[in-house]
């Protein structure tokens, strides 16, 4: 069963607690080869692309938790030891783990992030973890709220659910992705740059649920052309 953002989530499935315990892993160790410069630090709306992503993740999580702001959030950013990036993510409540080998791809960063959260909070603390990339400047809190709301209504004792957003007119699948805690072991062993897609396209494909987001809030910026296109759309109010 699926539903669209701004609609009520379907009632059903086990609700294990009023608000599920959700962690966030932010992947910010990419080498930005196709961009030619660090894309997370590109200017966006008076700050940076990374600020926009972190704001959406933090605000969406807080709003889903009924406005419960914390001193320490269950968030971790995996970075490549870039001081500017580390300072930005810390401003939004993220702990920082450094990926000393970013050339190994997203899989290594996801594993580091999951390992940090589980070692810090305990293996059985989290019901689910959101894995997010750091190059989606249009990402908004409503996306995070939608992922958490759907997960809250549909997860059960097995927690095999994987919640994937589909964006815009074309309804293309994108990030962030919510993984139920059944997948935590697998997330710590994936390799290469496919990241969570290894599970989504493999043993997890039968457990995927989609939430529909009407706007193109999931667009990322991999190349200078992508970035310029988003700047042009921003200036035109599209």
Automatic annotation (TrEMBL):
InterPro entries: MobA-like_NTP_Trfase, Nucleotide-diphossugar_trans. Transmembrane segments: none annotated. Keywords: Transferase. Residues 25-200 form the MobA-like NTP transferase domain. GO terms for molecular function: nucleotidyltransferase activity. It comes from the Bacteria. This is Nucleotidyltransferase family protein.
């Amino acid at each position: 069963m699926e539903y669209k953002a701004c609609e009520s989530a379907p009632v059903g499935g086990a609700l294990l607690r009023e608000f599920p315990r959700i962690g966030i892993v932010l992947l910010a160790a990419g080498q930005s080869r196709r961009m030619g410069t660090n894309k997370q630090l590109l200017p966006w709306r008076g700050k940076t692309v990374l600020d926009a992503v972190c704001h959406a993740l933090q605000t969406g999580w807080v709003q889903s938790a009924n406005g419960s702001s914390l001193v320490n959030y269950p968030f971790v950013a995996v970075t490549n030891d870039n001081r500017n990036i580390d300072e930005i993510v810390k401003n939004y409540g993220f702990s920082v783990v450094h990926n000393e080998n970013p050339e190994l791809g997203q899989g290594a960063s996801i594993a580091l992030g999951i390992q940090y959260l589980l070692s810090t909070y305990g293996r059985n603390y989290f019901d689910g973890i959101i894995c997010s990339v750091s190059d989606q400047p249009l990402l908004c809190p409503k996306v995070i709220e939608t992922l958490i709301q759907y997960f809250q209504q549909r997860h059960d004792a097995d927690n095999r659910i994987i919640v994937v957003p589909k964006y815009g007119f074309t309804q293309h699948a994108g990030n962030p992705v919510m993984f139920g805690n059944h997948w935590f072991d697998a997330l710590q062993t994936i390799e290469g740059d496919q990241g969570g897609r290894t599970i989504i396209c493999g043993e997890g494909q039968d457990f995927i649920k989609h939430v529909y987001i009407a706007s193109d809030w999931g667009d990322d910026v991999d190349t200078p052309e992508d970035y310029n296109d988003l700047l042009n759309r921003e200036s035109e109010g599209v």
